[in-house]
Amino acid sequence: MNLKKKVFVASSLALAFSMNLFGDEVYTIKDKTLKEALEIISKKSNLSYIANDKLLETRKINNIENIEGTQKALDKLLQGTGLKAIIKNEAIVIVKSEAKNSSKNGNDLGKIDVVANSEITEGTGSYTLGSTSTATNLSMSLKETPQSISVITRQRIDDQSLNSITDVLQQMPGISVQSIGNGRSTIYSRGGYAITNYQLDGIPTYTNSRTQNASQGLADMAVYDHIEVIRGATGLMTGAGDPSGTINMIRKKPTKDTQASMEVTVGSWDLYRAQLDISGSLNKNGTIRGRVVSAYQENESKKDYFEEEKKIFYGVVEADITDTTLLSVGVDYQEYKPTGSSSTGFPLFYSDGSQTNFSRSLNPGAKWSYDNKETYNIFATLQQELINDWRLKVSTNYLHTDREFYGATAAWGLLDKNTGDGIALYGGAGDAEQTQKGFDINIDGTYKLFNREHELVLGYSYFKYDNTHSPLSGTNVEGNPINYYNWGNNPSKPDTKNGKLYDWDHVIIQKGTYLATRFHPSDDLSLILGGRFSDYEYDDKWDYPVYSSSNSKENYDETAFTPYAGIVYDINEEHSIYISYTSVFEPQNSKDKNGSTLDPREGNNYEIGYKNELFGGALNSSIAVYRIEQDNLAVADTGNYIPGTTDAAYKAIDGAVTKGLDLEITGEINSNWNLQASYTYSKTEDQNNERIKTTYPRHMVKLWTTYNLDKLTLGGGVNWQSKIYFDTTSWQYPNMKFHAEQKAYAVANAMARYKISKDLSATLNINNVFDKKYLSSIEDTFLTGEYGNSRNFIFSLKYTF
């Protein structure tokens, strides 16, 4: 089915689904105070309103246009403001949007909604959000969370046409995205540690880009409401992991009121994309709600011969089983088919040791290579309100990916600058399969102590990661020499008649029991205390059908306790200071020069900061300084190799320290002006005070802003980072030392959106406006690199109905 047919079918589905549209009042409110807006809604809906005068003072609200339904209008007015509207007993009640709508001193307006609207960003027009539970599973505002947390909202995603998770993370404060090869990116934070913990609506999953089977890194943003990143150790919720952070991907939710949109996109390198999103009630009283999202994309690339095709489907149904019981069930599916793909970057060095300099269109992959991945994710959540403002929540997630690959990449060796010789192929054929199962059950609520109310969550989580990799022999590809100047990206194809080369099965199982409480000694002070008991185990098995002497099996089982502590002091309603502590625990599979596996990495994570939330939470800013101390940190043992292999050996060092500074301001300066700006500084040193992790920039600045001029919205920004480099030796050339670097650089982006009518808008994005050429990543294992994208444009038309 061609693209035009797909768009026609999507349009037909939209019309068929657009049912159960029940009449209600329609509201348009712009440039009003909260009090003025409430008076308008009160008059039109014949509902009185109740609000504390202090809540009405200097409160900034969102503009809304043609919003149908009183509750929906109130929700959109107040999202991101730190307030919530409850329609109860023929009145509109305005309260602070705190967890479970309960205040510290015990005043309670009763259960209102099992789903916290303040955790959804869609339709708010905001660059920030009202509350998050990613850090501790306790729902708190950004100001109340004693860690560095950043968010890219639905509005920011739409403004910059950020259609993939890597697009989003490239704009995220403090994050460095470095491509290993097509469809493979490592996400670094906090001094150069890789983020391997991803959450899907809070359920933990694991990713390792070096397996080439990391489906989370290919996620399409058609499915998601927003992306949250907590920087620093997150052991309370994730158990084992680097002190880098956690990425929480929050899916779109069904809406009670019918809404639908169609979007078509074209862009540089023959980019064509169509997206359909329909949501609404499936019965007259709105107790059953559904949402369907589908998208199709095909595109070429700055690289010669490289093309991609993506198909995305997402469906979710929410049902109010009773007034206090909510069930959500859904599935998302993605098919990813690249051709001309490369498993690594291009060679970074000439044979004389100098750094290469190619055209950005260079593709080190064979034109017939492919690396297809098919991923489906099934999930369900049951939330049950209990007595005395307690809630039980049970969530499960099943993620499965099938991978089939067939290819060759010209990546091994040193290039002779004059002849083009010296490079050998890396690759082959085969398949892989990955299954991840996640489960979490928790109970949370409030309790009274010393005549004050406090919050508590107690839970148990289970997670299993099973990755099986089965390459075929392909002996006529691996190690075959080519001439880099005339190979034409068309070497001999893999000969797979010899069958499997080996089977590799890697299993990780984590079980954890966690508890966290937010204790309020006074209205101004919060103590957040918690801990997690974790049981971590993995099995690593290699089976060679022909070379059985190379078979190996390794098992590991470890228990650990991860403490968590935070103190937040509210200077006043808008400003707070905090300090937090947690520990670091990460088992390692790196081996030393004797072939022994290194002991688990352990350490401590300290952070102290200041946060504020202005205009009722519409604008958030933060300043944080942190220190990470680690022992048993694996670093390359230069010149040594694991016995019987060509793999580099590692050694464990004690006393590694990371120090850093985070600054961020995000949200609305006024009703027309959105801003997200950040600066991060970070440096990791070994026990001898020598800098390590040097492929992570010491300084990063990220700025993006938009301004609305009635029908026209203009936006622009810049990402700047300091130099990245590495100095290393290679198992291929043990007597040579290699130095690669990318000097400091800046990339500018711009956008414009014009509202053609109430329902139709056009958006143009220009990326890398000044066509800066730069290395977006340098990789010291294969001595390869990747260039960032050259100047390109994306044009979208979006119709809502």
Automatic annotation (TrEMBL):
Membrane topology classification: Multi-pass membrane protein
Localisation: Cell outer membrane
InterPro entries xrefs: Beta-barrel_TonB (IPR000531), Beta-barrel_TonB_sf (IPR036942), Plug_dom (IPR012910), Plug_dom_sf (IPR037066), Secretin/TonB_short_N (IPR011662), TonB-dep_rcpt-like (IPR039426), TonB_sidphr_rcpt (IPR010105)
Keywords for the protein's UniProt record, in alphabetical order: Cell outer membrane, Ion transport, Iron, Iron transport, Membrane, Receptor, Signal, TonB box, Transmembrane, Transmembrane beta strand, Transport
Predominant location category: membrane
Keyword Nucleotidyltransferase: no
Coiled-coil region(s): none
GO CC, alphabetical: cell outer membrane
Signal peptide: 1-23
Any one GO molecular-function label of the UniProt entry: signaling receptor activity
One Pfam family this sequence matches: Plug
Keyword tRNA-binding among UniProt keywords: no
Secretin/TonB short N-terminal domain span: 47-97
Gene Ontology BP term (one): siderophore transport
PANTHER family xrefs: FERRICHROME IRON RECEPTOR-RELATED, HYDROXAMATE SIDEROPHORE RECEPTOR FHUE
Record-linked NCBIfam families: TonB-siderophor (TIGR01783)
Family membership: Belongs to the TonB-dependent receptor family.
Record-given protein name: TonB-dependent siderophore receptor
Organism: Halarcobacter anaerophilus
